[in-house]
Amino acid sequence: MEKNINHKEQDLIYALKEGSHKAFDAIYKIYARRLYAYSLLFTKSHEEAKEVVQDVFIKLWMSRTKIRQEETLRSLLFIIAKNYLINSYRSKINSPVYEEFIMHKETMIVNDTEYQVEYHDFLNKFNKAMEYLPPTAIIWRSAGRRRSASKRR
Questions:
Q1: Is 16 helix (H, G, I), strand (E, B) or coil?
Q2: Cα(103)–Cα(37) distance, rounded to whole angstroms?
Q3: How many Cα atoms are found within 13 Å in the side-chain-facing hemisphere of 121?
Q4: CB 74 within 8 A of CB 13
Q5: pLDDT in tens, 1-49
Q6: Tens digits of per-residue pLDDT, 99-150?
Q7: How far are the Cα atoms of 36, 140, 141 from residue 144, in angstroms, in the given order?
Q8: Cα 28 to Cα 46: distance, rounded to the nearest angstrom
Q9: Distance between CA atoms of 106 and 116, rounded to whole angstroms?
Q10: How many angstroms separate the CA atoms of 65 and 36, rounded?
Q11: What DSSP character marks residue 70?
C-alpha cells in the first residue's frame, strides 16, 4: 500500500513539474491539512496558519520546475513552512510596532490585570519566537537596541 501511495506521489510530482493544475490540487489535498496543523502549532492563529499554507503552495507552484524531489514532497513543503514561520517571526520582532510596544511598556506601570495577562501572553509568544532565531540574529537584535538607547541620550 505504502509503495502504491509513493508511486502515485511520484507521478504527481512529475505532472506538477510539467505544470499540471490537477497534480497541484492533488498535492494540496495530500498536504494542506498537515501543513495547517504544523503552522497552527507555532502561530496560534487560524488566519496566520492559513496564510502559511497558502504561501507554501504558492512557492511550490512558482518553483515547480526546479523541484529535485522524486518520491515525496513532504520534507520540501515542511521546510518551506518552517522557513516562512521563522521569517515571519523575524519581521515581527524587527517591526517598529514591536519597538513602540517595548518603549511604551517601559514607560508605563499599570496594575490592570487585563493588561498584565495580555503582556504575559505577548512575552510568551516573543520568547517562543526568539527560540527560532539563530544566535547571530539575537546578538544583532540586542546590539541594535543598545544603539537606539544611546541615541536617545
A1: helix
A2: 34
A3: 8
A4: no
A5: 444 555 699 999 999 999 999 999 999 999 999 999 999 999 989 999 9
A6: 777 777 666 655 567 777 888 888 888 888 877 776 665 554 454 444 444 4
A7: 34, 6, 5
A8: 18
A9: 13
A10: 24
A11: S
